[in-house]
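ok so i was messing around last nite and threw this chain in just to see what happens. nothing serious, just curious
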Amino acid sequence: MGAAPLTADPIGKALRALRDASGLTGDSVARRASMSAGKLSKIETGKVRPTLQDVDLVLTAVGVSQEVKEEFLAAARAEATEATAWRLLRRMGPWKHQKTIRAIEAGTTTLRLFQGQLIPGLLQTPEYTSAIFSLPPALPEETRVKTVAARLERQSVLYESDRSFRFLLCEHVLRWRISEPVVMALQLDRLVSVSRLPNISLGVVPSDRRMPDFPMTCFSLHDDRLVIVETFHSEVTTRDPKDVEMYLDTFERFAAVAVYGDAMRATIEDIRDGFLPRQERA
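result:
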């Protein structure tokens, strides 16, 4: 299957041509790409400019060759880095964004995630997740429930033995109280439990060590092909090899000063006990 000429047609029309050539229906491709059929239709008709994530997911769903995929991604990468404002994601439905992230994670063999802000979504308890989406600007109740459920559904990927997860958390994240103490204690218990899974490496960057850098943002590395960075106002996605290499280097520098295994669990349990009433401490 050859690629449609990208210089003559918008990306959306070229994606439509590839889908037609594959014989797949729009509903089928949209389902595989974890997006609504309406969104796919708007992309194909040029009413919505697709993000790099959208293009990648659609091409994977259609089943094009790696060569064709790279050609399309190169064309879609008019700017190597793109940002999507949180207000737009909120307007579109934050639970839909959770499904997009789930699709990206499903195609990732090794996930590296650095957090200097909060517990990673893949490791959150329902109560902690609900507390996050209750922070200003709080989501409406129905939207919050759907978004929490969508985030928790992503966690099933942790139990797929052919995938590898490396989480790095700054110590202050464990102490950053975004809910009642009991919710924080249960969340830290969850970290200790999940850390024992054989395909998970969980490191805590202690606050009493000399740091290799500043935790300016949190970010996730999907293999060596994609970085997603979260800021206060937007989510930034980049596939530029130089950017990916920089984030890989940053991750490894923080990983070098983190504690793991029993030392990590002892750190988490000590902080957890600080959230518990004295009589409930082990």
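not much to say yet. Residues 114 and 271 are 20 Å apart (CA to CA).
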